[in-house]
Amino acid sequence: MADSYALSVAEAAARIRNGNLTPTGYAGELLDRIDSFEEDLQAWVTIDREAVITEAKERELQLEQGSAGLMSGVPVGLKDIFYTAGMKTTACSRIYEDFVPEYDATCVARLREAGAVILGKAVTTEFATSDPSPSRNPWNRDHTPGGSSSGSSVAVAAGMAPAALGSQTGGSTCRPAAYNGIVGLKPTYGRISRYGVVPVSWSLDTVGILVRTVNDAAILLQAMSGHDPNDPGSAEEAVPDFMEEMNRYSGPPRLGLLKRGYFFDRSTEEVRRHTEEVARRLSEAGATVVEVELPPSFSVAPDVQRVVMNVECAAFHEEFFRHRADEYGPRLRANIEMGLLIPTVTYLQAQRLRREFRRDLTALAQEVDALLMPATPAPAPRDLNTTGDAAFQAPWTSAGLPTVVVPSGLSQDGMPLGVQFAAPPFEEGQLLGTARWCEQALGLDLRPPDYS
After folding, report:
1. CATH number for the 4-293+363-451 domain, one of 1.10.3720.10, 3.30.559.30, 3.30.70.20, 3.90.1300.10?
2. Which one of 8, 135, 148, 408 is the catalytic residue?
3. pTM of structure
4. From CA 197, how far away is CA 89, in angstroms rounded?
5. Res 2: pLDDT
């Protein structure tokens, strides 16, 4: 039997339901693993061992009473921007260093309702923006783990947690997923409530999911999805049975390869060759792969995303910044200053262009089961002063379309590579079903050697 730290969410939940694994034993092994690797990887901000074991015992009691949830007894890490009642939520900033919320974020409350055990708060870049965090990539500690969901991604990749929450305003979930060799899901904007999540940009922020398999992404999505009147951006779209929808897309998919233009032009030669090889392997496994072209509106998408993010970030931080600007990191400070200078007309034009862009990308995505592209322009840089390039995620975040990153191989330097899939809004079942078929066709199980 495999060590429990190597289990997927689905495997762990099944063993707990069957009585072959106890929530307290599972949580204890993960806590011990965190103790062993935390000095090397610096993935966590706050771990309350006593609280974790107490919650795990509650899950055991619920199971004994016949009350089993979708994720009963499965520990989940939280990026340190998610409110947790009675536990610090610092956003890894000096501004919030003593902040203790009085309530759980809606998505955290829903995870608890599904039976999950909150394992702790994972490192984020400051306020989930651009200044690098202290976390290290478990594949090579000289390479960035990405950001801003750096600690969450590292924790999942190194087997310290089977799942963790991140967030994405530009590329903060799917980029670190690719850099760390795990699965990252950015759902449709509004699918998961952001109430109780420290914001970067209200009209862009999306709760992200970091796991080891596509099935696990669907489980967490099922647990957290649904309208929340406390979040003005929360969608009223009905929540389907995602596993049932995935099963409708269990056969060979039709994939639209975004080869010409933006994605391949920005990629290294190694990434271009790798993506073509992945497309070839999927085609040989039965997929239909056709080349598709991006709409003209795509050309301004990165600039539009940056304008909106900076203005809304500045709006949130304006009061703090007026009195405590010197306590912000240099990159975040620069972003806020830029946002404060952008004219209202420019911001409104950017929002108008976003609507056009969303319409065009939705139409493109509807032509296939999923669009296929490289996950990142290059593997994780050998540079701890950067979180990497978010260029391949930001356009989809701006448009609000769902995307998922799946590990697809290793670079010549032994760093993870991934491919990214996109689908129309609120078609996560279609997206995940297609990605699962591709995941199975590729047949990879990437684990960092020093933490396997």
Report:
1. 3.90.1300.10
2. 148
3. 0.98
4. 10
5. 61
